[in-house]
Amino acid sequence: QVQLVESGGGLVQPGGSLRLSCAASGSAFNIYTMGWFRQAPGKQRELVARISTGDSPNYADSVKGRFTISRDNAKNTVTLQMSSLKPEDTAVYYCNALRTWLYRSEYWGQGTQVTVSA
To answer: What's the pLDDT at 54?
Structure first.
């Protein structure tokens, strides 16, 4: 069982930056692929960025060059550094943990609101 707790959301002006953090409890954090998803009002949840156990990140095209995902396996944390934020980045951001080794299991955080507005 993995529990995920996000922090760092808030209100920021267009062009600004925010840093989201996700703290994971439970064992074997390093075998989970960690990701950030977001869901805007009236839209489906979408992948923002993901980093595998081999530390190879991938990003949605809409955030490439602006967002950076990183993980610290020693601290069981994953971070999303967001810069050059746009109003269309406004959404609830969710931390995700996905295990596919031996068996599949997936966990979600409770979400943190990011609002980009002047």
So the answer is: 75
Q: SS3 of 31, please?
A: helix
Dist. CA 66–CA 54, nearest whole Å: 22
The phi and psi torsions of 115 (rounded to 5 degrees) equal -125, 125
**Cα–Cα distance between 55 and 34 in angstroms, integer?**
10
The helix/strand/coil state of 60 is: coil
- For 69-116, the DSSP string reads EEEETTTTEEEEEE-S--GGG-EEEEEEEEE-SSS-EEEE---EEEEE
pLDDT in tens, 38-60: 999 999 999 999 999 776 799 99
pLDDT at 80 over 90: yes
